[in-house]
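Supplementary notes (optional reading)

For those who missed the lab, this is the record we used. Protein: Cytochrome c domain-containing protein. Length: 134 residues.
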Amino acid sequence: MKGDSSLTTGPALRAILPALLLLVLGACKQPPDEVVTTQSSAEERGRVAIKQVGCGACHEIRGIDWPRGRAGPSLIGFDDKTPIAGELANTPAALAAFIRNAPAVVPGSTMPPMPVTEREARDIAAYLYSRQDD
C-alpha cells in the first residue's frame, strides 16, 4: 500500500474517525467524584488498622509492604477509582460503610464484613484516599 494515501485521507479516514474518537474517549480515566482531603492522624490510624485487620491479605495497598494479596482488587490509586465495588459513589462515607459490612452495602460482594469500628473504617478510608498514586 506504499504510496496509497487513500487510507490517511478521504473516505477511509472519514469512516474510521468516529470509531477512533470513541475509542480514545472511552479510554480516558473518569475523574474522581470529589477530591478528598484527610488528616494525617486519621491516615496513620488507618494504616495501623489496615495492618491489624489484614487488608493486605487480599489487596495490594500502597505503603503496606506485606502481605500483598491478589484475591481482591488492588487498592493502589484508590482515590481515582470509581465507583466502589462497581456500585457505590467513591466517597469516604460510602467506603467506610463498605469496609465495615460490604455484603450489606453491596449484596453479592465477595468482601466479608470486617471487624472494625466505625472510626477504624473511616480511618482506613482516610489512609486509602491519602495515597497519591498518580
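If you only remember one thing from this example: The CA atoms of residues 12 and 115 lie 59 Å apart.
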